[in-house]
Structures are given as C-alpha cells and as structure tokens.
Amino acid sequence: MMAEDIRQDKKGNFSALMEHNSNGVTRTSALAASKTGASKKLVIKNFKDKPKLSENYTEDTWLKLCDAVGAIQNSTSIKYNLEELYQAVENLCSYKVSPTLYRQLRQLCEDHKWSLLNMELTESVDSLSFLKRMNRCWQDHCRQTIMIRSIFLFLDRTYVLQNSLLPSIWDTGLELFRTHIVSDSGVQKRTVDGILEQIELERSGETVDRSLLRSLLGMLSDLQVYKESFEERFLVETNRLYAAEGQRLMQERDVPEYLHHVARRLEEENDRVISYLDQSTQKPLVYCVEKQLLGEHMTSILQKGLTVLLDGNRVTELTLLYQLFSKVKGGLHTLLQFWRDYIKVFGGEIVGTPEKDKDMVQELLDFKDKMDNVVHTCFARNESFINAMKEAFEAFINKRPNKPAELIAKYVDSKLRAGNKEATEEELERILDKIMIIFRFIHGKDVFEAFYKKDLAKRLLVGKSASVDAEKSMLSKLKHECGAAFTSKLEGMFKDMELSKDIMIHFKQYTQNQSEPSNIELTVNILTMGYWPSYTPMEVHLPAEMVKLQEVFKVFYLGKHSGRKLQWQPTLGHAVLKTEFKEGKKELQVSLFQTLVLLMFNEGEEFSVEEIRTATGIEEGELKRTLQSLACGKARVLNKNPRGKDVEDGDRFNFNKDFKHKLFRIKINQIQMKETVEEQVSTTERVFQDRQYQIDAAVVRIMKMRKTLSHNLLVSELYNQLKFPVKPGDLKKRIESLIDRDYMERDKDTPTQYHYVA
After folding, report:
1. Which of 212, 555, 580, 605 is deepest in the core (most CB within 10 A)?
2. What is the pLDDT of residue 6?
C-alpha cells in the first residue's frame, strides 16, 4: 500500500518513505535511497518514552511461573507453553526484576525441600526401602531442577552469570538438597548406615542392587559430602572387618588357601570401586585390605608357609605370594630375608650331613635348579632375590670347609670318566656349566684343584677319559673362572700326554734300528713331576725282558734330554697279555701288577699268596686286591682254593684253563682301593702346605714393594691377594715365621710396624 501511495504522489514528504520497527530502529527503504540518490544509512533512535509494563504484569507472571514450578515439583502437567514461560522470564529480566525473581525461585524450591523431608523421608521403613525412597527423591530432584532451569535459563545466563557470588540454579538445587535433606542428621545417618549395610551383605556373599548404591554414592559425591559423610565411616568399617577376618583366617586356613583368599578380596574391592564407589576411595580402600590381610601377618605367613611352598615347589602360590607382598610396604624386604634364610638352612642340611656326602653335589645342583626356577618364574627375575640366593649359597657351602670342593671334584670325575653313559655331549656340557655355578661359591678352590688334578691324572694315564673335548671344555671353564695360574698345571698334564705320543713315535723308530728288537711293545708316558700328583714309588720285581726294555728307553730318552732323571711308576702301568685257554686264544687287558701275577703261571701250576708276594715284590694290600680281581671278579682267570670273595694268607691259586668269555679282548678291572681317610687327609694337608707357601710368597712380595708397612695394612693387602680363605691367626704365624727367617723385621719403637730386610 505504501509503495502504491508513493507512485501516486511522488512529491510525498520524506517521512513517508521511512519504515518504523517496534524497537525504535528506523530503516530507510531502498526506493527512497534510489530516488534521493543518497548513500545507505542505518539510523538508530531511542524511544521518546520507555515502554512500561502493565501494573499487574510482574505479579501475574510470577503466579504463572510459580504455578509451573509447583506442577514440576508435584509431577503434574504444566498449564502453559514452555516457550511462553521462557519469554515471560526474559521479559521480567529485561525490566530489572531479576533479583526478586531469583530470590522468589530459591524460596519456592526451599519450601518444597522442607515438605519433601517431612513427607517422604521421616517415615519408619526398613533400611533398603529407605534407600530406594532416598534414591527416588534424588532422581526426582535432578529431573525437576533440569526442567526448572530450562524455564529460568535466561535468568541463569544473565543475572546469575553476572553475579559471581550467586550459585547457578543447578548449584542452588544441590545446595538446598544438601542443606535440608542430606545434611539432616537423621536422614544422613540412615542413608549411610543403609549403604554400609548393603556393602557388608555383598562382602558376605549376598547379591545387592549395585545400581542403587551407584546412584546414592553418586548423589553424595555430587553434593560434595561423600568423603566426610560416607568414606571415612566406610574405611573404618572395612578396617574393622578385615582385621577380624585376617586374625580368624590365619588360624583356620593354610597359607596357600589364605593367599588365594586375599587375592580374591582385593579383586572384589577393586570391582566395587569400578561398580559404585568413587574413584578416590580406591587407594585408601586397597591399602586398608592389604594392611589388614597382609601387612599385619607378613611374618606369620612366611613362618607358617614359605618352607611348605618352597619344599613343595608350589609355583602358582609362590608367584601369588610375591605379587601380594610387592604391594605391601616392606613386604619384599621381609620375603627376601626369609627366602635367604630358607636357602641357608636347606643347603646347610645338604652340606653339613656327612651321611649325605655321596649325593651332596647332585642334591646341590637340583636345589640350585629349583631355586633358579623360583626366582625366574615366581619372583619376576628380581635382582635382589638373585643376589640374595648367591649370598646364601656362598654362606652355607663354605660352612663345612674343603669337603664340598673335594666332592665337586669327584662328581666332575664321575661325569668325565669313560663308561658314563648317562649323558650326551650336549647334556654333559650343560652339567659342567651347572657344576661351575656351584664351584664359584667355593672359597677353597685350591682344594678342588688338588682332588681334580688327582682324578684327571687317573683318567689320562689309564685312558679312562670319556672325551678329550669334554676334558678341555672343563679346563677352559676353570681357566675363565680362576685365571691361567689356576689351570697351568692341569694344562701341563695335557701337554705331557701329547709330548709322550711324539716321543713314542721316535722311540719306535729307534727300537726298529736296534740289533736285537724286543717282542714286547713298550709305551711310556713321560710326566713332569711339578704338574702331576705325587705318587709313592713302589719297587716291584719286573721280568728281565721288561727291565731290559726300560734300560733301552732310558738310554734313548736321556740321550735326547741330558740332565733329566727318570723315575718309573709301576702303580700306573698296564699291559695286554696274549693268553691261551681250552676255548682258544684271548687277550687280557690288565694292570702291571696283574701282569706280574699272571706271568708267574708260565713258570708253575699253583702258588700261595706268600710265594706270589716274594716273587713279584708287590705290597701286601695291593697284592690281595690284585689276586681278588683275577680270582673273585667277573673274569676269573685264576682259581682260588678255598673259594671265597676275600683273599686270605693261606689261599692258593692256579690258572683257570677252562675260562670262557664271549669277547676276544677282555678287560679285567683292578679292584680300586677306596680312598682312605688318610689319603684324603694327605691331599688336604698338601693343599694347606701349598697355602703356607703362597702366604709366605705374598708377604715377601708385598714387603719388597712397600719396604715398610703396618700389621693391619699388610693383613688387608694379603686378603686382597690371596684367593683362599685364611684366618688372621694363620697369617700372624706366617709373618712370625718370616721374621724368624730374616725376611723382615719388626720396628724397634713400633712393634706393629714391619720393615723388609733386603
């Protein structure tokens, strides 16, 4: 219509070309702009008079809002459109009614909470019903507050937001709920008591409504009263429950069962945190369970059960024990001490029981394997436990000096000796590696060396070594562990055997050029005295032909090595004899002593023990063992009269022509004399004698370098240099001995000071 008027009356006034908005903004029409040719402008003008609300608008609007809030709180239908209510709030806020509106809304909500407390939560009902009613109140409150806030959103986002001291409508709702309902002593006590009762029922195995507990505990958390109203009481109750349970179950159950129970309880409590407790409760709750079920009973658990678990190799329970103790302060340290003590006691019984000496080394190896498995499988390869195990092994294995070293040497001998069909080369290598681990724990390694050298000599000289490769492998392990000085003599023994082979090649060539070659083939091993064990020389009566061959070899050898001295050792000799029985010809592989006895039967039919001793010159005990091997063993090439297992002075012997055997070459083993106590003592004494020489040499070496030294410093230096255990008293004796022999002297003014005497 306006556009038509303009076309009809082009001279109309300018005001007719303006469009007015209700908010007072004047907008120039496009047509006017085009007609006048003026630039586009936005002109804003104030109302001449501020619009006024009708007199009863505020009161009427509040009654409308009050009615809507009441409908929400009573869960009835709202008469008005929500958009209309929102607009009403906006209008009131635009006309500075916000403070009054906020105050009236708060009062309205507060009155409702009072009525709710009186109507809903004061009735006498059972615990679970009360919790459900409380939860319903909370859920209703949350739903109602959200709806109320949606109506009063403009108030919340303008007036409340601009006043930092005022809580938002949601926070006001929480504050009122907390103040008038949850903070009521009766309501709070019944709520918390009910929750604790439900948790206790669940702990005793009953099923409870976890969603109800989750909602109520979430309510306490939202209202910021969770910690003081619930958590503190909850932890006190938990502490009391598990303290009593720990005391009772430690009496009733064995340790494996108890450990599984603790693990299950911890799992349950963690599940409770995930399901309905606040996350902040997890740490103090788990600490409480661990303290009461584990921390208070660590010593009792270990005293009662560790030995049982380790003896039974209960890997699962030991793993659980380690995992549980690692959670408790000081748990692993306590476990470590008991573990170390167990190893010392168990190992001490193996080493300290002479009746078990026969199986000592095998038991030690089995025990070490078992403990290694426990550390790696159950104790997570913890370095502290590995080191504690090493310390414990070293402690108990040296409580009985020398014997373990001697038995380890004998064990190695049994494994390296020919005829040991127990293991393949790979298995043998593994056994030797395990032996070396036990060997490392021994302090007196020189005792091991002495016995090992004696057994090695037997294996090499009698040809009883199972494998040269295995022998050299063991030697290299010892060298790597103890250094070249430790194995130099052992390596010298191998060198002697190799040199002897070369010498025999040259000797054979030498004998072939002789005018009267012998029909006996002689093989000689040349042993360097310092490398090999010392053997007691024994004079025996050799046949003339053997004596002649010995002389031939002596001339040959001394011709090549002048200045050397040869000493024959008949105790180590052996021979192959060609023999004729009724069954046919056989070859007998025998010792030199057996050879001398058998050769006598070329000269006569029957001989007494005394006649044989006179003819051969063999010592009485050695002769009886020799005759026993020939007449009472598996291969009886001699008949003994009277029959029997032992050889007596009155016995007589004759050649058994009826001897039969399926093999052509028969090895007749010499009956080995068991190593006597005297021999063992002799070997040990030789070790001690060597130790004295080493101490003397070390003292002189140190004093020569330092010239002057106090007693304490000298002893300290000696402990650093000596590789075997030694008592301070023994060191003092050696120092006194060197002073007596004028290697050193005491200071005249200071008796504890020594001077080297050049």
Report:
1. 212
2. 35
